[in-house]
Amino acid sequence: MLRFILRRLGASIGILFAASLLLYVLVINSGDPLAELRESNAENRENLMQRRIEFMNLDMPWYQRYWTWLVGVGKCFALQCDLGTSRQGVEVSALLGLAASSTLRLVLLATVLAAILGIAIGVLTAVRQYSGLDYGVTFLTFMFFSLPVFWAAVLLKEYLAIGYNDWMEDPAFSVPQIAAIAVLVGFLMQVFLGGTPRRRIATFAVAAAFVAIVIPYLTWLNFFRFPQLGFGGVLVLGLGVALSGTAMSVGLRNTKVLYPALATVALGAIVYFASFGLLENPNWFVLAIGAVLAVVIPALLGKYLGGHLAVPAMGVGIATGIVMAGLTTLDHIFRAWPGFLALKPRPIATIGSQTPNFVGTFWEDFLDKGTQLLLPTILLAIISLASYSRYTRSSMLEVGQQDYIRTARSKGLSERTVIFRHAFRNAMIPIATIAAFDFAGLIGGAVITESVFGWKGMGELFRTGLMQVDPAPVMAFFLVTGTAAVLFNMLADIFYAILDPRIRV
Questions:
Q1: Backbone angles phi, psi at 362, to 5 degrees
Q2: Which DSSP symbol is given to 281?
Q3: 20 to 30 Å CA-CA from 329: which of 91, 142, 352, 502?
């Protein structure tokens, strides 16, 4: 295994070296970095040209300039990166740090959302193959995948930003709007849940009636300007996750999994009150500690109370703990929403990654950055959704034809057990490759998205460097995106080799 990893690592380094050399040559030959200064009538034109020559090392041969850049990259192993200076004399390492933090925050969230939703949709459409749901989801995912990024961004700005901000001034629903939303939700619920015609009609009626009652009630509470989840909401939703997770994994009758999940809910309820004051204005360190505890404690409960079913008990417990922690956090975010609206009456922004000179509490600052992140994240996620859903669907259908799946069914195992404990695990192997390429591809694809939404990220760094014939910012962009692409591809190969030892040879 070590030999396989070293061989893949060596190949990856060779690919990065060749690609960086090619890109550097292409950039420096794409134009004249001194063009606008040569045509300038400024009295200090010669001084400006000399300064730019010094900043960009234009007095050196191209191969010496490339070698200087390569040596600076090598210093990164000693945590002393020297990526040169831009043609304005600004250290590119500082520009890269700001740009990378902005872009990676966007791309990471979009990748996680696309993977979770895409895999869930893929599994569901595979189980309901050739149904109306399958055809409808296939149409929508490919429509999203085919959308021009700039056009979809304009639509999101118009309806999810400008339209929503106008509506937030006086959030209310008319009777036709409530009826339309109720019918739409009822239709979608009966499509997703399926069943006999009688069951579909009942599902539609219950879902539509529920929405028709809840929306006026929330409007009466002025929930959209003063939202609150409360202890009751956290407890009920946490119980729902514990019960549904147990039902999907081993069934509700198996107390070895059910009791650790319910114990996690009880602990979450205690933590809700114990941490209330601490979470009113926390910091990232406190939230990180809470996230770790939300995983470790349920895992320990599942391990020691689950007996011979320790693994599913740990899985359900961890899922319940994470959801309970997330709901507790969401409750505090809801409580900060009115104060955030007072500081920023039009909450959904269309330009930039954060509001300039915004000053507020921790949660208000979190909401500011989150609302700025909303539109570009949605855009990148829906574009990636098609890949995850279609590959998951095809992989699930392929695995479903294997002999061991037929054997599992012939043994009398429930369909839930066959799907989630046998088919799903093996169907996820090809998704590792998709996730690896998608993450790196989104970083590169964020160039257009960042331009449309005015984000000062990796896309802006790349575009500016290319337009100014400045190789330093462009090579910094390549250093992150190229390394991410090769690294995640290598990790996918290693993950494959761990799951299937035949790949090693």
A1: -60, -45
A2: S
A3: 352
What's the whole-model pTM score? 0.80
Return per-residue pLDDT of the chain as tens, 505 residues: 677 777 777 887 888 888 889 999 998 888 888 888 887 777 788 888 888 888 888 888 888 999 988 888 888 877 778 888 888 888 888 888 888 888 888 888 888 888 888 888 888 888 888 888 888 888 888 888 888 888 888 888 988 899 999 999 889 899 999 999 999 999 988 888 877 889 899 999 999 999 999 999 999 989 999 998 889 999 999 999 999 888 877 777 888 888 999 999 999 999 999 999 899 889 999 999 999 999 999 999 998 888 888 888 898 999 999 999 999 999 999 999 999 999 998 999 888 777 888 888 999 999 998 898 888 888 888 888 888 888 888 888 888 888 888 888 888 877 777 887 778 877 777 777 777 677 767 776 677 788 888 887 888 888 888 888 888 899 988 888 888 777 777 777 776 666 666 555 5
Q: Do 337 and 247 touch, CB atoms closer than 8 A?
A: no
Smallest CA-to-CA distance from 319 within 260, 393, 253 is with 260
Does the CA dihedral 344-350-351-354 come out positive or negative? positive
Name the amino acid, one letter, at 99: A
Angle formed by the axes of helices 149-156 and 431-453, nearest 10°: 60
Tokens of 62: 């191209």
- Reading the block at residue 102, the tokens are 């902005």
Q: How many other C-beta atoms can be found within 10 angstroms of the C-beta atom of residue 85?
A: 20
CB atoms within 10 A of CB 13: 12
State the Cα angle at 44 between 39 and 45, rounded to 5°: 25
From residue 304, alpha-carbon distances to 214, 257, 275, 313, 443 in Å are 41, 11, 26, 9, 42
Task: Using the structure block, give the residue that is written with the tokens 């200076």.
Answer: 85
Q: Identify the sign of the CA torsion 101, 106, 107, 112.
A: positive
Q: What whole-number distance in Å separates Cα of residue 381 and Cα of residue 110?
A: 5
What are the C-alpha distances in Å from 402 to residues 130, 294, 409, 422, 426? 20, 37, 11, 11, 11
Calculate the CA 357 to chain-centre distance.
Answer: 27
Q: How buried is 56 (Cβ within 10 angstroms: 0-12 exposed, 13-18 middle, 19+ buried)?
A: buried
Rounded Cα distance, 32 and 18, in Å: 24
